[in-house]
Amino acid sequence: MTDNNNIFGEKVKFLRKHRHWTQENLADRAGLSQSEVSRIEKGRFRDLNEETVRSLARAFEIAPETLAQNTPFATLFGQSETLVCGPVYEGLPFTAYFASALTGLDDERLTEVESLDEKVDQICRAYQHYPIFLYRPRLYTSPKFNPETSARAVYDIDQERVSTADLLILAAVFPSLGAGMELQLALQSCSSVVLLTKKGNPLSRMVQGCPAEKVIVEYDDLREVEEGLSEALRSLMPRLAELRLSHIDPQGETAGFELGDRIRRLRRDRGNMKAGELARMIGVDEAYIQTLETKHEQISNPSLKILRRIARALSTSEAYVISGQQVPIQQKDQRFNDHLRALDALVEETSMSAKDYKELWSEHVEKYQYALSLPGADNRVEIGGRQYWVERYDQLKKKISKGGKLF
Question: What's the CA gap between 197 and 218, in Å, rounded?
Fold first, then answer.
């Protein structure tokens, strides 16, 4: 095992962890086995063929020569190796995402964006206090360099990059719906934001009012961009370093995948419900469900509204979907008695079939989960996602409880 092997293995591990992938995730994307990925990361290989390097580079969306050259990432970033490899950063440099308009620009405006992109990259590489790696969509998913990339692939790639970045640097120079979406993703991911805007250009008040931790840099030329961005980094990076330390998860690589595992398990427990069926029930496409179930929580980052819809569709509580724990509101024996009383009333007052009764008993009563909701608007009750018509609705309400919802 040589030093070059160790350098290559550390690069692969760095890129994988930066994307919040497991070794299995990387193996699937690169067409390798999990054991091969493990050996590569540990430097336990004699020779790597060119195809393996290219497969890994494609998975990471970087140039093969960048991955293959025998220099540590510290050298590539222009930083001291001790900073990159120190325990404070867990071997990972800070990451920034450069957001800007790319679609529909004429040559003059596109040249201006490209010059700004190059300058921001130079500033991040040269920053002396913390190592910063800048992701530049212009080089990977822009319509100029990658017109064959599908719209969905662009969304997935850019959403993942923004969600995992410590910092969003947004060039608010030309109108861009994509950059606006990236700003919202940064807010949802609790990333800090630097807004670059030309002096005299009006900046949307909605953008100015975005509650993310942000710094606005106004400039006339690239020299002022360098001065303003460097000062913004000096003000933001110590705080980002503090956050990096406070969010180290003792569970390591398994942390962050529990939500997706739980949703997939609940879906399969509900009569082996298909991902497409769950997607239709909550109003998204099937690919989004697959993202929720397979990617790190920081990447999928579902809204509370989506989690509520998932809980309703899977006949469970929001607390269980989010944390895997039910909220204890009543003692177990009392809850059991409430269910018995509710079921007795339902058999008398609703059109529930014997099959529905049996399923309700097995799926809800024995697991002590939400079973019955009384909307109060009309003569309907909802049980485990199914609605039943009740002729004597007031009578049923009296028989069950005063609160309108069982625990």
Answer: 5
- Taking only the tens place, the pLDDT of each residue in 367-398 is 444 344 544 445 555 655 666 655 555 555 55
pLDDT per residue over 34-46, tens digit each?
Answer: 888 888 888 877 6
H or E segment and range at residue 281:
helix 275-282
Nearest to 178 by CA among 157, 209, 197, 148: 157
Residue ranges, the chain, pLDDT below 70: 1-5, 18, 20, 46-47, 66, 69-93, 128-131, 244-256, 297-299, 326-407
pLDDT in tens, 155-164: 888 888 888 8
Interatomic CA distance for residues 17 and 353, integer angstroms = 51
For residue 388, give the H/E element and its range. strand 386-389
What is the predicted pLDDT for the residue at 2? 54
- C-alpha to C-alpha distances, 145 to 101, 155, 234, nearest whole angstrom: 14, 16, 33
Classify residue 162 as exposed, middle or buried by CB count within 10 Å of its CB (0-12, 13-18, 19+): buried
Q: Has this prediction a pTM greater than 0.70?
A: no
Quick one: CA dihedral 252, 267, 35, 61, positive or negative?
negative
Q: How far is CA 353 from CA 337, 349, 370, in A?
A: 21, 12, 19
Spatial separation of the C-alpha atoms in residues 308 and 293, rounded to whole Å: 16
Domains assigned to the chain? 1-71 (1.10.260.40), 77-246 (3.40.50.450), 254-317 (1.10.260.40), 332-400 (no CATH)
Amino acid 381 reads V
Which tokens go with 118?
């190059």
**Which pLDDT tens digit goes with each residue over 202-212?**
888 888 888 88
Sign of CA dihedral 287, 293, 298, 303: positive
The neighbour count for residue 106, using CB atoms within 10 Å, is 7
- Buried b / exposed e over 378-389, threshold 16 CB at 10 Å, is eeebbbbeeebe
Buried b / exposed e over 198-219, threshold 16 CB at 10 Å, is: beeeeeeeebeebebbbbebeb
